[in-house]
Amino acid sequence: MLTTEIGGFEAAREALARERLEELQALARTYRNWTVKELAHALGRQPGRLVPESGMPKIDLVVGLAKALDWPVEAVVDHLMKPPAGPRKVVHPKDTAADYARLYNESAAKRLERDYFEAIRLAVRAGVVADTGNRRAGALVLESEAHESTGSYVEAVRCLREAIRMEGIAIEWRIYCDSKLGNLLFMQGLTTQSLGIASSVLEYAQNLPSSLLVRTSQMLGHWTRGHVLRSAVPLRHTESWRSLAASAREDFCKVKSLCMALVVETDGNPLYFGSFSGVIDPMLLELDAICDEEQAEFAVQALLAILREGGSADSGIGERKAWAAVAVANTVRRVVPDEMQRRGILDVASAALRAHAVATSNWYFAHKHLELDAERRRNLVGHGTASRALDALEAKLVAGVLGQVPAAREHAAEFFALYGSGEGVRA
Predict the structure, then answer these.
(1) 355 and 368 Cβ atoms separated by less than 8 Å
(2) What is the pTM of this model?
(3) From 3.40.50.1220, 3.40.50.1820, 1.10.260.40, 2.40.30.10, which CATH number describes the 2-81 domain?
(4) pLDDT tens, the chain, 427 aa long
């Protein structure tokens, strides 16, 4: 019985894929004003073999179709693979609108317990029975946060974009979803988009009546804008960039002020504000070292002290160390002239980033680790030491970063070459 059901599902999936591939090819012909023969030539296929039986085209056909349509390759893949139209989720037969609050709270609790997949399942159920736009947006935010915790930034972004597109949600919920989306896009390396969203949030939020959601949105807006400005400061010749660093520092000071007030107001709510309270100081120390050269040595020592703090099961401690690692890596590359001292500190920073990324599937920190490690390995190769193959954890980091951080993909070839070229590769 199960085999029959699976077979039926596969047949339906293949039929849908063939239909969509035919749709895209017809669109490409119309767009280019091509005959079937001309399309086949462009795609490197025989006219009678444009659509495989399975409906699943090989990569060269996908790339050729993307070029014919002037689409990104991922847009073609998304169209071919997306599920059929209709309800995205199936409601539990016993769920009703009256169950929304229970499902929402249970999802939030499961996320705190780090049972992220159950948190996602409960958030989806809450969203299906939500009877208002605000409730639906709230469920999507919960689902997004749980996806982010599993390392699926793509799914987290999808949830927020879905919430933002919804009709019938209050402006404060829209601003809140925007603020979270801006932060996620920064973590994916999409700084131009995240800066625009963060700036818009801050502009519109100041004209709204004050509320918990609005102040939270302002905090996230300053956090994101501060990071984008901070990351724009180069690692050399920073004198002319001090005004930008000062603007970023002002943003982080506002984050700190808002965060302290919100922690008190919500009794230290760990879902939204607790993790921010300990991670702002590393950013301020890095920016202090840019704005005032005399603060540089103190900043390096203070950041190293954070990295040497005792371990804890609290994920906030690990995140604080990871941000300190980002900050100290940038700072020593700007201000420490001694190569041996600089390399030693960078190795400590890289190890802290790696540890937190492995523990939490945080691909932003994983990307920063890979960048530092790539720099270290380039130096080793320059001194005649061969690169080695990826171990299981490093392979996970490379795969996760390249999959979830679009900005990292331009360096994909370097990551692979540094980790797996020459005699270091395992069979």
Answers:
(1) no
(2) 0.83
(3) 1.10.260.40
(4) 434 444 455 666 677 778 888 888 888 888 888 888 888 888 888 887 888 876 678 888 888 888 988 888 878 887 787 766 554 555 566 778 888 999 999 999 998 888 999 999 999 999 999 999 999 999 999 999 999 999 999 899 999 999 999 988 999 999 999 999 999 999 999 999 999 999 999 999 999 999 999 999 999 999 999 999 999 999 988 899 999 999 999 999 999 999 888 888 887 555 567 677 789 999 999 999 999 989 999 999 999 999 998 755 455 688 999 999 999 999 999 999 988 999 999 999 999 999 999 888 899 999 999 999 888 877 766 555 555 566 777 788 888 898 899 988 888 887 777 665 543 344 3
CATH number of 97-169: 1.25.40.10
- Cβ–Cβ contacts within 10 Å for residue 258, how many? 20
Distance CA 277, CA 179 (A): 18
* Residue 93, burial from CB neighbour count under 10 angstroms (0-12, 13-18, 19+): exposed
Looking at the chain, the domain(s) classified CATH 1.25.40.10 span: 97-169
392: helix, strand or coil: helix
